[in-house]
Amino acid sequence: MIRATPFRRAGALAACTLLLITAVYAFQKPFKEYPGLEYTKYKLPPDFQEKTEWVFARLMYPPVGPYYGGVEFNGTWKEGGSNWTMDYPRSDRHLAQAVRRLTRISTRSVEEPIDLDDKDVYDWPWLYGVEVGHWSLTDEQAKTMREYLLRGGFFMCDDFHGEVEWNTFTASMRKVFPDRPIVEIADADPIFHTMYDLDQRFQVPGALYLETGKTYEKGESGKTPHWRAIYDDRGRVMVAMCHNMDLGDSWEHADNPEYPARFSDLGIRLGVNYIVYSMTH
């Protein structure tokens, strides 16, 4: 057996560390903003250009149709103003601030929209998709997503409700993984225990709760919250689905005194757990 000398071990460690640091910073493309459904101009924090270890990566995707809320967007989903921009960028930046305060992860203060067609999704270990009950991935995008997840990527999706939106979501997800089941995540799964022990979970509603007093949307089929997943062959969660809840709103309205703190508390803790899990599993 050939043993590495202390010098060689130190040299190899230094080289690997340098490569890792170089990779982390090299992969961060220039920050770009898009007009959103709710916010068109949102104030930038002074440190938005800082290079960090982790960035809130938001999935851009083509919607099922060109309409949202009965209004046609004058442009394409690649230009913003589509379903993928719901809560953006306020939600993203609030969660980023929470990650900064609650963990020691070096976190950028602003998000990064990710287009699967650009083929650079592999540079972002954690990816978030909102309103995926309205998405419609192309075959090529589904292929890229599958490769991303099998390489170790993590996809969290949220804010879709009821049976109709679930079926729309799974139509595209089955393109990604036609051979892997979608299952309920067990309470004992490490994803619920990375930072916080979250055995006692409950439905996290969107801001619509302030108008209706209801924690659910889309009728009877939207009443029961589900924390579901697709696992890889080693038992790692690749896709985490928060169905019949709106964590994005709980992050977005974390500073809204009218939105109950208990919903933001759980929503942020879930987000932090999923982020830490994605970086350690």
Topology record:
Elements (H helix, E strand, L loop, with lengths): L5 H21 L30 E4 L6 E2 L2 E2 L17 H13 L9 E4 L10 E5 L8 H12 L3 E7 L1 H15 L6 E2 L24 H4 L13 E6 L5 E7 L3 H6 L8 H20 L1
Helix pairs in contact: 3-4
Low-confidence stretches: 1-26, 68-72
Give the end-to-end Cα distance, rounded to a whole number of Å: 31 Å
Proportion of residues in extended strands:
5-15%
Enter the CATH topology name. Answer: Rossmann fold
Structural class: alpha/beta
Rg calculated over all Cα atoms: 19 Å
Shape: globular
* Main pleated sheet: 7 strands, mixed
CATH superfamily: Domain of unknown function DUF4159
CATH secondary-structure class? Alpha Beta
Question: What do the pLDDT scores average to?
Answer: 89
Helix and strand succession? HEEEHEEHEHEHEEHH
The total number of structural domains is 1
Question: What is the topology, as strand order, of the major beta sheet?
Answer: 4-1-5-6-9-8-7
Number of helices: 7
CATH level-two architecture: 3-Layer(aba) Sandwich
Beta-strand segment tally: 9
- How much helicity do the residues have? 25-40%
Structure, explained:
- This protein is an alpha/beta fold.
- The protein has one domain: 3-Layer(aba) Sandwich (Rossmann fold).
- The strands form 2 sheets. A 7-stranded mixed sheet has the order 4-1-5-6-9-8-7. The protein has a two-stranded antiparallel sheet with strand order 2-3.
- Helix 3 crosses helix 4.
- The longest helix is centred in the first third of the chain and has 21 residues.
- The radius of gyration is 19 Å and the shape is globular.
